Amino acid sequence: MKYHNTFSQLDPRLYHRQPPTPLDSPTPVHFNQNLAKKIGWSEDDDLMQNWVDIIGGAYVPKGFCPLAMAYAGHQFGQWAGQLGDGRGLLLAQVIDNTGKLQDLHLKGSGLTPYSRMGDGRAVLRSSIREYLGGHALTQLGIASSSALGIVTSKTPVQRETIESGAALIRVADCHIRLGHIEWIASFAPDLLKPFTDYMIATYFPDCLSADHPVLAFLEKVVKNTARLIADWQLIGFAHGVMNTDNLSITGSTLDFGPFGFMERFNPAWINNHSDFTGRYAYQNQPAIGHWNLNVWLPHFMRLSGISRQGLGEALAHYEPVFMQRYQTGLCDKIGLPHDEDSLGVGFDWLTLLQDCRLDYTNSFRALLALIAPDDFTFEAQLLETLNQEIENQGDKARQSWQNWQSRYQALWQKLPQEEVINRLTANNPVYILRNDMAQRAIIEAEKGDFNEVARLFELLSQPFKVQDIATNLDITPPNHDAPPLSISCSS
Ligand code: AMP
Ligand code: MG
Question: What ligand 1 atom has the least distance to the C-alpha of 243?
């Protein structure tokens, strides 16, 4: 691997250097060979042979420089003070085979000075969810951390019950969170300038040639965040804990907790069991992205030449960038060009999905069978299910569905069929990580059988392609009348 450990060269107040605390008898769960290749891990026999002990925390290879980062944050809208890596360590930074900097971060590695009341550990169930969730998003083309490998162990970890301690290494293009700046502003304000220079030089070097590099950098963070959240909305991803300590400056998905993928479409879905007010409900994510940036940006006023007006102008990019990305994405998802007519039909489609509580992923994919039923037999089955579900809901639902189809048909029939099909197939996955899929893999893994983790990993590697290794359960949403699902935060 090409090591490029730059964070560890920064002011020592920003981190605490320490090795991991080993897990007892680590055993392999899964390893991501393609990612290992991408980051150069697979070129090194020592790393390949010892990956289980590395993730298990017993072996720190030469070139690694493990440290826990200090950061702060706003949690559920409240200032939470110092947080930091309470159960993770930045192991190393490397240059991948595309020339891009990547962080290797070990999660579940034991106590650090930032552990607060926690035990420094992660359990198998949440590690599997993070492993599969990050992989799913990455393969769907959404900026995300993605894990290299996962191990379980005999280390007991107390949650609601005693569970197995597990760990994973995740690879992310950056682990600097909005909360890093919040920490600096409170605890080491003299570092604001050098740390900002570091972020720009390392992650946004293009900004160095701008008239005002800091404002150009902030504008990029704003735009990247807006794009990421538009991508989440389009694919139906709900992060669940969009605290400022969980958002990276590069706009890449970080920190998988009680996340979920939308199944039956319900924009008000709250996937985090501890989110009593619905602050992080799916439909609130775009506004929360803006809220987070709005509390973050004013810290930069301490830098010379940064005015409130300049920061306001940077933040003003958020909404148009989000809207542009989301609206063009929605038109793409129904296979139509980007114009007002398509958008109107797109929004009405969402209303229909919501009113009839239809599955978000399957319904979009089923549109292929409206266009070319003979060529898309798998999708024809999805359409058949959709028809039946609407039929069961009575005349009003049937009428809305028929009206919508006529309006949709009037638009797609004007276009070359191939164009519509290409857009539909490229923008609508067949497979997402449904909660029950993850749950089935977890139940097997807790019994020591990791085959289902491996199968889901493979399935989610090509989410846009109908696959033989899939089962009906992979495309089955919860029952129509099942209450919305929420996931506990304790992981
Ligand atoms: P999260 O919202 O899961 O990203 O975590 C918020 C903060 O709590 C971060 O500082 C984490 O490092 C810390 N944390 C979460 N779980 C644990 C744990 N089991 N032990 C120590 N710290 C933890
Ligand atoms: Mg976090």
Answer: 2
Total domains, the chain: 2
Residues 413-454 pLDDT 10s: 999 999 999 999 999 999 999 999 999 999 999 999 999 999
Active site residue 245: yes
Pocket test for ligand 1, best of 245, 254, 275 (most atoms within 8 A of CB): 245
Region 342-371 average pLDDT: 98
- Cα of 107 vs centre of ligand 2, distance in Å, is 11
Tell how far the Cα of 280 is from the centroid of ligand 1, in angstroms. 18
The model's pTM is: 0.98
Same domain, 32 and 70: yes
Residues spanned by the domain of 426: 177-434+476-491
User: How does pLDDT run across 369-414, given as a tens digit for each residue?
Assistant: 999 999 999 999 999 999 999 999 999 999 999 999 999 999 999 9
CA distances from 331 to 327, 350, 408 (A): 6, 12, 11
The closest-lying atom of ligand 1 relative to the alpha carbon of residue 122 is: 19
- Does 283 fall in a domain? yes
pLDDT at 491: 79
* pLDDT at residue 490 in the model: 66
Cα(246) to ligand 2 centroid in Å equals 5
Point out the catalytic residue in the list 103, 173, 245, 255.
Answer: 245
Domain finish residue from 141, 172, 203: 172
Ligand 1 environment, Cβ below 6 A: 83-87, 114-115, 118-121, 241, 243, 246, 255, 257
User: Domain end: 126, 147, 172, which one?
Assistant: 172
pLDDT in tens, 163-204: 999 999 999 999 999 999 999 999 999 999 999 999 999 999
